[in-house]
Amino acid sequence: MFSILVNEKKKAWSLVGLILVLVAAAGIFVYPEPYNRAVRFFNNKVSFVKLPELNPKPFRLGLDIAGGTSLTYSADVANLPDSEKSQALQGLKDVIERRINIFGVEEPRIEVSKSGSEWRLIVEIAGIKDINQAINAIGQTPFLEFKEERDSAETNLILEKQKNQDPQAMFEDPYFKQTSLTGRYLEKAEVQFNPTTYQPNVLLQFNDEGAKLFEELTSKSIGRRIAIYIDGMPLSAPTVQEAINNGSAQITGQFNIEEAKALARNLNQGALPVPITLISQRSVGGTLGFQELEKSLFAGIIGFAIISVFMILIYRLGGFFSVLALAAYVPLVLAIFKIIPVTMTLSGIAGFILSIGMAVDANILILERIREEIKQGREVTTAIKEGFLRAWPSIRDSNVSTIITALILYFFTASIVRGFALTLLIGVIVSMFSAIFVSRTLILAFLNQKGVNSKLWFRA
User: What is the model's pTM?
Assistant: First the structure.
């Protein structure tokens, strides 16, 4: 029995080292300031080598924490048939999100809801300063334009001027130049399929004046590309094969059906798909949001402390190592929140704190099962293996049901609930790793020869 324990301990200690490295890296990534202070101290003392400091992006904060503005618009879809309303509203969301991003706002919350017979567009913009400018931009008509490819000599000249910091050339596009053909002449864009290859293509249809302009443009651009832009962002740059005089054009490429639909939807956004009217505006102060954040974090710390005391009193050393696993769980989850990144809202923080409780629940199931195995007369090492093995089905089933619930909340509810669902989902998945892998590894690593015959580890 002792030789088996020694082998288990060797493997466990190797895994403990890996866990410590992983948790330390996650902790530094989440909160790099202590690491950076140590690096600065080292760099001041040692001159022949310099360690780099870490400057990761901060957590992405939502409107209720960072402050910002919530705008509510009424969308007029009365003149659209029911079959086109969904696409028009999706196009509206895409246009407004692109325009808001011009202001450097990351992940604005934009959603469509229905109040009675009225469709509404809700826009939440975290941290934006000039709200009047944002309101004006949202209400403007997106600009669709067609540009022709420059000659190589002209391109090289502009690139050379930009290399020499010529102020007049710095904002010029060296590869394409503007034409008089814009989205005002486009009647519609729709997805069609090539009858031979069955590949999806996008068909453009211009009005009479646009057809004439497009014929002139394609006549002088044979063998060269014509680029299509919306709000200064390139969408496509097909090569002209021949002059087109029927007022329609086909954009071909290696599209899948979703990409072709997205391109057609963007092209149809030469104007807002539906008229919108601002009906309410609400500002949220960042100070109030940070006060609520501090309260939430304080509640989380208090809850963690109470859980730790409970686990140690009830399960002794087994509970202590569960608390260590829980302490490793926190930086791992927060690091994932940063990497994705998850927009941290008060509801999202609530979901994260709840997931800590879910992680403890898994540890309780395991430790209770170990106690039952010990009471049946098994050796502690065998009881540990059987406890983890027999507790797994219950842990799996309970966590899978929570994951399914979180997925339903995420995909079928408003975004204020989606933040809660996403953090809960990530937390539950990581808690399964923490409870099964980290707890077991720590217990086996620290269980010594005396501990094999001691039931005080688990208060059995």
Answer: 0.65
